[in-house]
């Protein structure tokens, strides 16, 4: 098994006043040639948006964009005619494809909104833009990983144009769970949302990132009450649509 460790304190950081953002991979003004991506996982931003503020209308194309709120309410509007609010317990996905424009605002005027903004390179270019969101409250499990994203539209959860699987897990102290890689050649990037865990002996704390590849499985042990996001993605950029 090969691995890479990204401690929380080593992430890129930009504080614009209304937006406080930490970048696991190179993004905007943060450029680190050793941290451009993990396979087809291109962006993992940990964003905090001030009350009533947000991202004005801006374009995207040929990217699978996933938003996972952690606290507060995020209001979304796009050029496909969608208007929606996503909150903790929801997962949102957009296939930007041939091109979309959208905006994201903190719906509340009395509290921050915190969310993960994740970009995955697609395996097909110039697809018809698409929007979806789900509540994961009915499918979440205790002390076990449950999947929230896959390549299959018929699965529970949202889907993307890529051989990627995302899982979330909430764990009590002392609990363990094993993860089986879904597709040969894929790697898994673990992002610790809360608490402290060990993955095959590697100690990880809140907001640490840990990527593993060239393995079929691994085991997570929760040292304290924890919450973890797993992102399984192809490691070869040959899986990007041309």
From TrEMBL:
Domain Quercetin 2,3-dioxygenase C-terminal cupin: 148-233
Coiled-coil parts of chain: none
Domain Pirin N-terminal: 11-120
The family this protein is said to belong to: Belongs to the pirin family.
Species of origin: Flagellimonas okinawensis
N-terminal signal peptide: none
CDD domains: cupin_Yhhw_N (cd02910)
Domain of life, source organism: Bacteria
Protein name in the entry: Pirin family protein
């Amino acid at each position: 098994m090969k691995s890479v460790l990204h401690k929380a304190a080593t992430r890129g950081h930009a504080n614009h006043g209304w937006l406080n953002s930490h970048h696991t991979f190179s993004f905007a003004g943060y450029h680190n040639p050793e941290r451009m991506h993990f396979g087809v996982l291109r962006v993992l931003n940990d964003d905090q948006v001030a009350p009533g503020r947000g991202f004005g209308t801006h374009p995207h194309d040929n990217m699978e964009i996933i938003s996972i709120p952690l606290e507060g309410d995020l209001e979304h509007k796009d050029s496909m005619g969608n208007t929606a609010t996503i909150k903790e317990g929801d997962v949102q996905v957009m296939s930007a494809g041939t091109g979309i424009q959208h905006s994201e605002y903190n719906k509340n005027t009395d509290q921050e909104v915190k969310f993960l903004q994740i970009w995955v390179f697609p395996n097909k270019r110039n697809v018809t833009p698409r929007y979806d969101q789900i509540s994961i409250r009915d499918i979440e499990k205790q002390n076990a990983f449950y999947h929230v994203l896959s390549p299959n539209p018929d699965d529970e959860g949202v889907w993307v144009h890529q051989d990627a699987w995302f899982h979330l897990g909430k764990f009590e102290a002392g609990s363990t769970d094993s993860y089986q890689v879904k597709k040969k050649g894929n790697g898994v990037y673990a992002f610790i949302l809360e608490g402290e865990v060990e993955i095959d002996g590697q100690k990880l704390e809140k907001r640490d990132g840990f990527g593993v590849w060239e393995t079929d499985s691994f085991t997570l042990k929760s040292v304290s009450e924890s919450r973890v996001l797993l992102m399984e993605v192809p490691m070869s950029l040959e899986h990007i649509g041309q």
